[in-house]
């Protein structure tokens, strides 16, 4: 092997190892798609009910909270399962350094958003603000993984943060919302647009741009 | 003209190059994580780590606070500089080959 060939080969080794060490996809695309479809399904019902000029809410605040916690549970369980399967196919430990980094980055914003959102629903009965807090904190959690994630994840994070802020200003500036007997519909709309639609778009974008090597890991 | 003697012979070996590359990506790597990522045997990995450690390119940290002792490794300032210089020399070699 000539010096040039050796140099090229070693540069290739460096590049591939650096990519492998730096990249960790904390949100699996199939789990995002499942969560997104469930979120869209859960939000369409209250929104369509309110659009049909029905003043009565289709579910209580407790049911709203329970429904979204169940969706979170299903999507998270599927995500963990798929990440474990991917780690096994690469012969890597499930709790890798990448996963530890992702958990360290993810946990603070998710904990704060989760607790504040539940507090807003249980004690202040404000579903919309809870949905917006969840959206913004989830977006910030995704952005916190930017240094070691594939580019699609921070992009999803920005989409959550920007949509969350736009929805917040739309909600805060429109005081007609106060006239509603329940804020279930605006809260469900916010959840559907963000956790539903954005996750589906993310999953489709990942599926469409996936390289063959990623689809069938050796 | 490139002086090929500039190539750091210590790093210019696939196993040690791989270790230096991983250590350059983030602060610390546990022995087990290095072993898994590089698919090396314990003996092979220890031998390369010892060579790099003797050259002053990396330092070993032992954490005995848990139930099982955990050994991790990180690049020293000299190691980081040596790796950076090595990559630059590789780049120059490739660039020179493209110009000829």
Radius of gyration of chain A: 20 Å
H/E topology pattern of chain B? HEHHEEH
**Could you tell me the strand content of chain A as a percent range?**
under 5%
Report the biggest beta sheet of chain B as strand number plus sense, adding barrel if it closes.
3 strands, antiparallel
Give an overview in words.
Chain A has 218 residues and is an all-alpha fold. Chain A has one domain. In chain A, 77% of the residues lie in helices and 0% in strands. In chain A, helix 6 runs antiparallel to helix 7. The radius of gyration of chain A is 20 Å and the shape is elongated. With 100 residues, chain B is of the alpha+beta class. Chain B has one domain: Winged helix-like DNA-binding domain superfamily/Winged helix DNA-binding domain (Arc Repressor Mutant, subunit A). Chain B is 56% helix and 14% strand. Chain B contains four helices and three strands. A three-stranded antiparallel sheet of chain B has the order 1-3-2. Chain B is elongated. Chain B starts with 13 loop residues before the first helix and ends with a helix. The chains are: A mainly alpha (218), B alpha+beta (100).
Concise description?
Chain A is mainly α and 218 residues long. Chain A has helices at 3-22, 29-51, 61-89, 97-122, 127-143, 152-173, 184-209, 212-215. Chain A is 77% helix and 0% strand.
List keywords for this structure.
heterodimer; A: 218 residues; mainly alpha; 8 helices; 0% strand; elongated; disordered C terminus; B: 100 residues; alpha+beta; Arc Repressor Mutant, subunit A; three-stranded antiparallel β-sheet; 56% helix; 14% strand
SSE map:
The complex is a heterodimer of chains A (218) and B (100).
Chain A: H1 3-22, H2 29-51, H3 61-89, H4 97-122, H5 127-143, H6 152-173, H7 184-209, H8 212-215
Helix pairs in contact in A: 2-3, 2-7, 4-5, 5-6, 5-7, 6-7
Chain B: H1 14-25, E1 29-30, H2 31-38, H3 42-54, E2 58-63, E3 70-75, H4 77-99
Antiparallel strand pairs in B: 1-3, 2-3
């Amino acid at each position: 092997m000539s010096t040039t060939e050796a140099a090229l080969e070693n540069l290739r080794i460096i590049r591939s190892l650096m990519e492998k060490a730096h990249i960790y996809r904390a949100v699996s695309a199939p789990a995002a798609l499942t969560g997104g479809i469930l979120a869209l399904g859960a939000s369409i019902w209250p929104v369509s009910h309110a659009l049909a000029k029905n003043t009565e809410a289709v579910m209580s605040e407790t049911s709203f909270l329970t429904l979204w916690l169940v969706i979170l549970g299903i999507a998270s369980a599927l995500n963990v399962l798929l990440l474990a399967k991917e780690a096994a196919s690469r012969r890597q430990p499930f709790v890798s350094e990448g996963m530890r980094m992702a958990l360290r980055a993810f946990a603070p914003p998710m904990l704060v958003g989760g607790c504040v959102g539940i507090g807003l629903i249980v004690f202040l009965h404000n579903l919309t603000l809870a949905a917006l807090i969840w959206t913004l904190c989830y977006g910030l959690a995704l952005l916190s993984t930017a240094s070691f994630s594939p580019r699609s994840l921070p992009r999803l994070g920005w989409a959550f943060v920007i949509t969350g802020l736009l929805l917040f200003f739309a909600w805060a500036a429109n005081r007609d919302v106060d006239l509603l007997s329940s804020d279930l519909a605006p809260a469900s709309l916010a959840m559907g647009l963000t956790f539903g639609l954005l996750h589906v778009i993310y999953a489709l974008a990942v599926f469409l741009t996936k390289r063959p090597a990623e689809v069938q890991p050796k | 003209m490139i002086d090929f003697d500039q190539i750091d012979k210590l790093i210019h070996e696939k196993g040690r190059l791989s270790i230096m590359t991983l250590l350059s990506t983030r602060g610390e790597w546990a022995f087990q994580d290095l072993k898994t990522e590089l698919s090396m045997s314990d003996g092979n990995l220890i031998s390369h780590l010892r060579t790099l450690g003797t050259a002053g390119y990396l330092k070993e940290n032992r954490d005995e606070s848990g139930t099982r002792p955990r050994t991790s490794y990180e690049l020293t300032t000299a190691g980081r500089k040596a790796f950076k210089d090595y990559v630059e020399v590789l780049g120059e070699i490739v660039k020179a080959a493209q110009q000829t």
